[in-house]
Amino acid sequence: MEIPAEEDRLVSANGVRLSGRQWAGMGLFVLALYLLAPRLWSRLERLELGTDYRIPYDLSQDYWHFDRMARAAAARYDTLVVGDSVVWGQYVRRDHTLSHYLNVQAGAERFANLGLDGAHPLALTGLLEHYGGGIAGKNVLLHCNPMWLQSPEADLRAWREGIRINHPALLPQHSSEIGAYREECSQRLGTFVEQRVPFHAWTRHLQVAYYNQMSVPAWTLERPYENPFGPITLKLPPPDEGLRHEAVSWTARGIRKQDFAWVDPAASLQWRAFRRVVEILEGRGNRVFVLVGPFNEHLLTEKGREGYLRVKGGIEAWLRERKVPHVVPEVLPSEHYADASHPLSDGYALLARRIFESEAWKVARRE
Amino acid sequence: MRHGIGHRTSDIRHRASEMLFHTWDFLVFFLIVFPVYFFLRRYNGPMNLWLLAASYVFYGWWNPYYLILIAATTTLDWWIGLRMGREGARRKFWLVLTVLSNVGCLAFFKYAGFVTNNLNALLGTSFANPAKDLMTGLGMAYLLPVGISFFTFQSMSYTIDVYRGKIPVERSLLRFATFVSLFPQLVAGPIERASNLLPQLHKAPRITRRHLTDGGSQFLVGLFKKVALADYLALYVDKVYADPGSFQSGALVLATVAFAWQIYFDFSGYTDMARGIGHAMGFRFMQNFDNPYVATGLGDFWSRWHISLSTWFKDYLYFPLGGNRNGKLATYRNMLVTMIVSGVWHGAAWTFVIWGALHAAGRVLTRELEGTSVWRDRVPRLAKQVLVFAFVCFAWIFFRARTLDDAWTVATRMFTTGWGDPQFPLLMAVIVGAVWGYQLLYTSGVRMKALLETAPVRVGLAAAMIVYLSVFAQPSLKAFIYFDF
Fold this sequence. Notes:
A: alpha/beta, Rossmann fold, 5 strands
């Protein structure tokens, strides 16, 4: 190592100094780490998509796992059902979800559940854009939940104290229109990078899958005497077997009739994001079939229902105009709903039958 | 929130949006600033203009209104410097004015709440905090200007040195403003002397590959100290110090030791990053830390801890008070005054006064001990190091505790309750132990130092730090502790 001139020397209290060549080597090491570690990990960590697999609820923020699961599902099934918790099955066991009953209707395992809890259209855009490349070219049954247009807050245009946003790490970080998303510039830049660098999504996967959604330092604070490498068992949490919530109807739950402040689709961020989702999928060669609702109209007041019909009409009009195959099933019986948008098991069974019986689905199948 | 004697001025707060070195903001900022600076560095005026603009963006990122404050104090000190150069007979008047303006600025923003709270508690009055009134009157949140203690001291050292005839008057306002606000060391030091930094701004900085690689290495070490170590330790320290009454001796002792390391890693980590950035830009900033927890006496500790501040106080307070020239008693009095002022510099609370007084007492004690042959020749070096570390840790209680009551609770429960189960993470103990071991080995002799400087050790340590930061460290946007000062 050459001896630096006096004014070039950095006096320090430690000996960690790298030369230019060593820094170059370190750069290659970091590059290899970033490129290879996630790939190597996916070989070591077994992912088995059993019948009616759905992403474990605790891994809802684990987009690296979603990416991996989506690729595995795309290799095994011909149609992927994409959407929010309505697809995931918030009030039912995994063998009573929409994809399960679609498989029953098809008489074979053809549909995979790619639902993600809380994935509103703005988040779904980020999810598919950054972590959904593996499903390119597949059939996609895309669920459109009008619930996300039920108020300016749900539409994420408006901010209010205490507002909680699902999946902020999936939002576009440079948009100033999402008024509900208020984050420091540095945090936005970090998320922007994480969305594009799989290594960062992989480190988040380690935290979510093995360390109770905590960083390793925070985890050791709760388990001070345990081996911090102990949780790395290479075994993923199993898919949820039980129920997230009690499977009772919305009336038994005591929900009253609602008068939502529906957002006009022409001005809605969420609806614009949904259209973008369709564009992304079509751009990747996916054959997209959209399922609109069915929203629980029984829960709406007369005024709320008028607003909903306007929203539904706007959605249908765009889908017709764009010639996107779609179905807008009639509302399910009241007792089949657990809340405003989630069906119960019988509701999913009926919905799957109606989808299969719809002319649009038959045409789409033939094509 | 409680106010009054013994409580910190809790209405002073920061927004957590400073441009911290370990954030993406700063990376983008630096990637823009550095290339332009690199090409401008041969043109002195444009270089200083670019650095000043960058530094003001860096500072204004936190709160643009306070740019007025830094610009005003800078302009005043520059102008006073000019007047001192022209009016030989009235130099003392200008000296008094610069000290009053800088200390007054600090007093107004940092100590007004403390003073009014104490007056109100003593006299039963209800004076309002004038700084808070002013800021809220202007429709702004009352925020302690980040780094005010650093840049006022840096600026003031210039005028004092001009008064003493140690340095020439700086005629360029642009260059002087760049000196005061240079972004790598603006908000938490090192507190540079004009005699060191101003001449560097007069010429084209030399930037070699060595500057870049050494600067990068220093930055990596600082980043690791901050993100992997300081912020990790903070998890345990914050938990215990948030409610010290509910913890037993073991947790209180370990949290206090953990805080000693947290503040060291936090502050020296910041300094390492600042110096690393400065070095990559061709600037030489002074060393601020030199493994302080291997010190064998309190005097030794202060020659290793926050060196730029301790030498500032030595040069501009301790020596003017008489230093050690007027006998033992006067020396100790001067030490006491210097250390208490140093304590108050850190924060407006009685806890900081006590912290300073404890260190003054410690310095007197170890100075006396160092005069004895038993201490000098019989007590092993390691024992001295452990004793000094224990004392420093005890003093940190007053530095860290939110209130005097809390400090008292920690200090008493530490000795009056059972050890209990401290729930101190083993990983934390292993990491701190490894770093302490490294420091002890690095300072133990030439052979060991040479071994730690071999290529495999250097590269291995750097790789380990990068892997830990990339995979395990928690995402952190925690501000630096010394930003509060």
